[in-house]
Design brief:
The protein is α+β, with helices and mostly antiparallel strands. It folds into two domains: about 60 residues; about 70 residues, no CATH class. The protein has four helices and seven strands, in the order βααββββαββα. The chain has a four-stranded antiparallel sheet. A three-stranded antiparallel sheet has the order 5-6-7. A hairpin with a 2-residue loop joins strand 2 and strand 3. Helix 1 runs antiparallel to helix 2. The longest helix has 25 residues. The chain is elongated and about 70 Å long.
């Protein structure tokens, strides 16, 4: 950012962008509890001989717990890897944790700002903005209060956002 440039909005995608990973985490941990708690005594296909002193139920429970932890890490790292910054001069999208990718679009290049929301996204007040320059575009995924962000960007373009409030 340049000296004197002000940040108007700094945000990340909502956690709903990784919803499938959170569902997998909950299901995996529930299965882990089922196997660890002994709710399923023995599954006929799995050998009942202890491996390294652990029962087959304990090993299966550890497997599902590890899958749940891996899905949680995937969800959080995916969300943490994306960062949106809107300043008084430009829009910035930063992607990546180890390998960074930064896209910047000055307001002078903006042609339109489109808002896409499903019914569920409208209820949850989240949405995806497509910022178009004619030659290129930046997608701002699953941002909270997308109508306000669209209005902010449209005002910077010198025109009002379209659509009902």
């Amino acid at each position: 950012m340049y000296q004197g440039e002000q940040t108007l909005l700094e945000t990340r995608p909502t956690r709903l962008i990784s919803f499938k990973y959170y569902v997998l985490m909950v299901l995996s941990w529930a299965l882990s509890i089922v196997f660890l708690g002994g709710f399923i005594e023995q599954i006929p296909v799995i050998p009942t001989t202890p491996i390294l002193g652990w029962s087959s139920n304990t090993i299966i429970a550890i497997f599902f717990a590890a899958v749940g932890l891996l899905s949680l890490l995937t969800a959080e790292l995916g969300r943490a890897a994306t960062h949106y910054i809107i300043t008084d001069n430009k829009i910035i999208r930063q992607d990546g944790i180890l390998n960074k990718r930064t896209m910047m679009v000055p307001y002078t290049q903006l042609e339109k700002v489109d808002l896409n929301q499903s019914l569920l996204q409208r209820v949850l007040r989240i949405g995806t903005l497509l910022v178009d320059t004619g030659d290129d575009h930046i997608t701002i995924d699953m941002v909270p209060h997308p109508r306000k962000v669209q209005e902010l960007l449209s005002q910077r373009m010198g025109r009002r956002a379209f659509g009902p409030r």
